Amino acid sequence: MIRRLSVTALLIIASFVFVLPVVEAKDKLIMGVHPYKPPVELHKIFKPIADYISKETGKQVEIQIGQTYDDAGTKIGTGVFDFAYISPVIYVDAQKQYGLVPLAIIANNGKPTYHGVIAVKKGSGITSLAQLKGKKFAFGARNSNMNHTVPLWMLLNAGVKLSDLQEYNFLKTHDNVAMNIIRGTHAAGGMQPDIAEKYRDQGLEVIAKSPDLPEHVFVANKSLDEATVKAVQKALNSPNAVPVLQGIKGSISGAPKFTDADFEISRKIMKEVGPYLDK
Q1: Distance (Å, rounded) from C-alpha 27 to C-alpha 137?
Q2: C-alpha to C-alpha distance for 108 and 257, rounded to whole angstroms
């Protein structure tokens, strides 16, 4: 009798020890966005996207803007954000530190790539990157791909080191960089092509373009339940998402799936500029 009770007790204990944890599905999701534009503008852009995903998944979706690029990476990595729209630089860093689940990559006119530019004020006489030696240069946010990493890589490849510049400053946003060039505060700066185009009529002129690089991505925190991950990914990958995604920029033609291997070129660039990124 005692032996039978002991076996029964062991079975009961084993059932508790070996039960696998169940990840419960959430009714409310937090969609994070890195602060590449002022919060008011980002809420206006991403509210239709949040509403669309909410409709497709049956879950309430709330938008939260990262306070900084680093903050956005930390919050998607630690689960404060359930899923997020982030830059390539944030993706590479957060993927290495936390592990993220790829959902979708932005495609422009059928290609999941984009490029950066370096612009000057029209009439400045500057026509090449080599001429920027001894001049003031404007970057945006330190963790921005097209506002810092890529233009820095372009300068280095043109033989222009940070020490060759008269001065360089971090102005937080693409728009700030563009406006300071127009005002004459800085001779040149790095930005996305759509920002350069936005200020072209005010005197901004592009003098250099980067190679095509992987675009911005939607990713999920690795603790988000599989069913929700699949539902959000399906909504983003659908052609029905294009009209709302075009609020980000008009050239968007879709948001297909991607893999971590697609970002090897971004890792190569970040490795090359790594010694200069914190200066």
Answers
A1: 47
A2: 14
Is 266:86 a contact under the CB 8 Å cutoff? no
The pair of structure tokens assigned to 7 is 């076996």
Helix axes 226-237 and 39-57, enclosed angle (nearest 10): 110
Question: What is the predicted pLDDT for the residue at 19?
Answer: 46
pTM across the whole model = 0.79
Compute the distance between CA of residue 18 and CA of residue 15 in angstroms, rounded to an integer.
Answer: 6
CA-CA distance, 194 to 215, in Å (whole number)? 14
- Determine the residue type at 198: K
Show the domains of the chain with their CATH numbers. 28-107+216-267 (3.40.190.10), 116-210 (3.40.190.10)
Residues of the chain with pLDDT under 50: 1-5, 7, 10-21
Short-list 109, 103, 67, 107, CA closest to 85: 103
Distances from the Cα of 36 to the Cαs of 70, 100, 139, 220, in angstroms? 12, 20, 13, 19
Residue 266 is predicted with a pLDDT of 93
Model confidence pLDDT, tens digit, residues 187-207: 999 999 999 999 999 999 999
**Which contiguous run of DSSP H or E holds residue 71?**
helix 69-78
Spatial separation of the C-alpha atoms in residues 68 and 59, rounded to whole Å? 27
* Tokens standing for residue 222: 């690795």
- Taking every pair of Cα atoms in the chain, the longest distance, rounded to a whole number of angstroms, is 98
